[in-house]
Amino acid sequence: MSAVCSDAPAPARRDARPAPKGPLDFPDSPLSRSARQPLMLGLFLNLQDIRFSDHPTSNSWTYDYNAALVQKADALGFDIAFSRTQWLPKGGYDGEASLDSFVALGAMAASTQNILLISTLHVLYGPWHPLHIAKIGATFDHISKGRWGINIVTGHRAIEHEMFGWNRIDHDKRYEMSAELFDVLHRLWTDTDNFSHEGRLNPWTIVNGYITPKPNYGRPILVTATGSDAGIDFAAGHSDLVFITSPGGAYIESALETLPAHISAIKARARAKGREVKTIINPIVVSRDTEAEAQAYARAIADGVPAPTHTSFGHRGYDSDAVAWKGRRDPSHKQGLNLGGNIEIIGTPAQVVEQLAALKKAGIDGVQFNFYDFTADFDYFAATTLPLLQQAGLRL
Question: What is the total count of domains within the chain?
Answer without folding.
Answer: 1
